[in-house]
């Protein structure tokens, strides 16, 4: 239950667990499913953020990207956040659902073969109970 909804089992309806298991088991390789040994922010996200920061990077949370601005060579100039802040860096990583990524993708990138593959990528609904 912690891997699905980040809450304790006694606070979660097992209907959530059954829905998740049913969904996974209907997939071709569903029997190979696995869950983290704790909640994703602590067991997955925190180690990644710690690693980025250990290399001198900065992790900015709870911020939404409004636009990806490009340089003339089509590389990233900066991110514009919805609060108006500008984020610049040498390299960028941002976590977003695939549908949002498709909306944020700059027009100049949409014809690049690497990004054209996004057309076939379908987002998977997040399990929420």
Automatic annotation (TrEMBL):
- Please name the GO terms that the record assigns under molecular function: phytoene dehydrogenase activity
Instruction: Name any Gene Ontology BP term.
Output: carotenoid biosynthetic process
User: Keyword Nucleotide-binding: yes or no?
Assistant: no
**Which InterPro entries does the record cross-reference, listed alphabetically?**
Amino_oxidase, FAD/NAD-bd_sf, Zeta_carotene_desat/Oxidored
Protein name according to UniProt: Phytoene desaturase
In this protein, which residues make up the domain named Amine oxidase?
Answer: 3-128
Q: Which domain of life is it from?
A: Eukaryota
Question: Which EC number applies?
Answer: 1.3.5.5
Top-tier EC class: oxidoreductase
Whether RNA-binding counts among this entry's keywords is no
Q: What do the Gene Ontology cellular component annotations say?
A: chloroplast thylakoid
UniProtKB keywords:
Oxidoreductase
